[in-house]
Amino acid sequence: MFMEWESFWPTLRRFFSDFWEKAAASAALAMALRQHASLLACFSLLVVLDCLTRWIALAYAYCRERGQAVSLMGAVLAIPAARRAGRIDSRTMKERGLSKLLLYAVCVLVACLADGMMAAIGAPGWLLRLIVSYMAVTETLSIVENLSDAGVKSLAELAAKLKGRG
Asked: What is the pTM assigned to this prediction?
């Protein structure tokens, strides 16, 4: 036990050496990445909600095929049964979700680079706003369509308006 404490103190001293420089660098990095971390968190949440609402829609369809009248909450509660029946494949959904997040990150990175190039020649940057807006609308539309497929009829009208058909 005494030996562990002897090795602990030098480690603690190394950790706190140059503390203010490390704290300042960490704060600067956090401030620089704040917007990008926020975007990633928001897109991650949208992808998770898209996946969840897709599961709800698949569970709803599973219940309807079995002749059961089901509400939205009933569809949520039927997710485990739909998974057991093979209607929901978590691995496929996870791979699609991670692929989508990777794709979004690459698109945002490319748009940032392009906007940086435009700024370098004195032109206003607009690509990042367009890309982020498009991806957010696409995910939102997917969520609305999933809920519409899960029996929320009022969202069918919203989905049509988002698609420009309403």
From this structure: 0.73
CA distance 75 to 63: 7
Asked if 127 contacts 114 with a C-beta cutoff of 8 angstroms, the reply is yes
Helix (H) or strand (E) holding 75: helix 72-77
The residue with tokens 């599961």 is: 55
Using CA atoms, how far apart are residues 39 and 112, in angstroms rounded to an integer?
Answer: 13
Give the tokens for residue 148. Answer: 């519409």
Picking from 54, 36, 34, the residue whose alpha carbon sits closest to that of residue 107 is 36
Can you tell me the mean pLDDT for 99-116?
Answer: 90
Q: Rounded CA gap, 135 and 145, in Å?
A: 15
H-helix or E-strand spanning residue 130: helix 127-149
Are 93 and 55 in contact, with CB atoms under 8 Å apart?
A: yes
Q: Tokens in use for 45? A: 């949440």
The domains of the chain are located at 36-162
Phi, psi torsion values for 151, nearest 5 degrees: 100, 5
